[in-house]
Design goal:
The protein has 420 residues and is α/β, with parallel strands linked by helices. The protein is built from 17 helices and 11 strands. The longest helix is centred in the N-terminal third of the chain and has 16 residues, at 95-110.
Length: 420
């Protein structure tokens, strides 16, 4: 049983021949700056910018490495800044000029590490990317082509003859190859493994009720009757009603700033979320490696054998689980939740990740729920450890305490991570 569970949560190793990129500690601030006040939608928004960054890295490669005559820092920053001053008008070809004119005013804010030469390259790339065909400057021309290769988002097929570089012309003629370029395989040096243990506090700020607070669910309901096998056997309808209510409630809330910023960390680190929460807010925020210690509201399983992999299924949140609904083995469907007294099936996998962590973070949990609370004991003594909680019952030894709620504390956490 443990073997298939470990396979279920196994994270694929990144290829060994990944590209080594310079760490850009301020790029998170650049993205936040670009998104601040942005109201023109995704056509020219974040997803476009991320594709431009991917294209720029792709065009900068030669024999598996970044070419020496390309400033990859400028290419990546261009991706997130070139549309900043765009008007809500397809014919606005002057937004590059306005963005270029803006750069000196933000240099001390988000371009602190740029040399004068790098600022000049970025300024030229922004100023002319809508009007110039090519400049003969590799970094600038790659910026041009990185943007042009994403014209498909507005229904325009990139023209190889209008590309500024040979690489750009090649990919314009073979546009289908771009999606084969694995952006997630681009690895920055010293990319660290961050393991984050989250609890009810992070989801509470999205509007989901906690369990053990003064007004938590277990103050309002009898846990033994609604979250145990005995309670399910005694009154299955009451248990299903309770979880159907919670499933419906999950449809009414959204990931908050803390969820989103933890997902954003994946741009620079290998991040594993170990969550005691049964909601899917981490996944909806964009986190790609989430291990649910206590189950998931979005899944159902067998009431006879809850860990039978053939019976664990995704189940629409807007569809109630009803008496008479059957699992693959013919038993009554039940929520895929770890009830009181049941084995926490993912705990050994979680221990393995904690043991390998370069950085360990606790957010929104009182560390009173076992066995999850014991995970802190598996961290190496020299590993940086943080706990984000406004009122923890106890701060474990060796932890840096950020005394804030999850949504406020996550920004301070990121500041601390940048110092490491």
């Amino acid at each position: 049983m443990i073997i298939w569970i470990k396979k279920l949560f196994k994270k694929e190793r990144r290829p060994k021949d990944t590209i080594q990129l310079p760490i850009l500690p301020d790029i998170l601030e650049v993205k936040k700056f670009a998104l601040n006040g942005w109201d023109l939608g995704e056509t020219h928004g974040l997803s476009h910018w991320e594709r431009v960054e991917r294209n720029g890295i792709m065009l900068s490669m030669e024999n598996g490495a970044i070419r020496e005559n390309v400033n990859i820092k400028v290419v990546r920053y261009f991706a997130y800044l070139h549309d900043k001053c765009r008007l809500n008008d397809w014919t606005d070809l002057e937004h590059g000029v306005r963005t270029a004119d803006m750069l000196p005013t933000i240099r001390d804010m988000i371009l602190k590490d740029f040399t004068d030469e790098e600022v000049a390259l970025l300024e030229k790339a922004c100023r002319y990317h809508t009007t110039e065909h090519r400049t003969g400057i590799p970094t600038v021309d790659i910026c041009f082509d990185a943007d042009r290769l994403d014209l498909g988002r507005v229904g325009i097929v990139p023209n190889p003859k209008l590309m500024a570089t040979e690489q750009g012309a090649y990919y314009a003629a073979n546009i289908h190859l771009i999606d084969k370029f694995e952006y997630k395989c681009i690895r920055e040096p010293l990319r660290q493994k961050i393991v984050v243990l989250t609890g009810a506090g992070i989801s509470a700020e999205s509007g989901l009720a906690t369990f053990r607070d003064s007004n938590g669910l277990w103050k309002q309901h009898d846990a033994k009757k609604l979250a145990s096998v005995a309670g399910f056997e005694e009154n299955p309808q009451a248990v299903l009603d309770f979880y159907n209510y919670r499933r419906k409630q999950l449809l009414e809330v959204e990931p908050n700033h803390a969820h989103k910023m933890l997902a954003e960390l994946e741009k620079w680190h290998d991040v594993t979320i170990l969550t005691q929460n049964v909601d899917n807010l981490h996944e909806r925020a964009g986190s790609t490696h989430v291990i649910h210690l206590h189950g998931e509201l979005t899944k159902v399983t067998s009431s006879k054998d809850r860990l039978n992999p053939c019976c664990i299924k995704d189940y629409p949140l807007d569809k109630p689980i009803c008496l008479g609904d059957k699992a693959e083995d013919g038993s009554q469907l039940r929520p895929f939740i770890v009830w009181f007294g049941e084995y926490v099936y993912a705990i050994e996998v979680a221990m393995d990740y904690v043991k390998e962590a370069d950085i360990f973070v606790v957010i929104g949990t009182s560390l009173t729920v076992h066995p999850a609370a014991n995970l802190v004991e598996y961290t190496h003594s020299e590993v940086p450890k943080f706990i984000v909680d406004p009122n923890p019952q106890k701060v474990p030894n060796g932890f840096i305490h950020i005394k804030e709620s999850a949504t406020k504390g996550v920004d301070k956490l990121i500041e601390e991570l940048r110092k490491l």
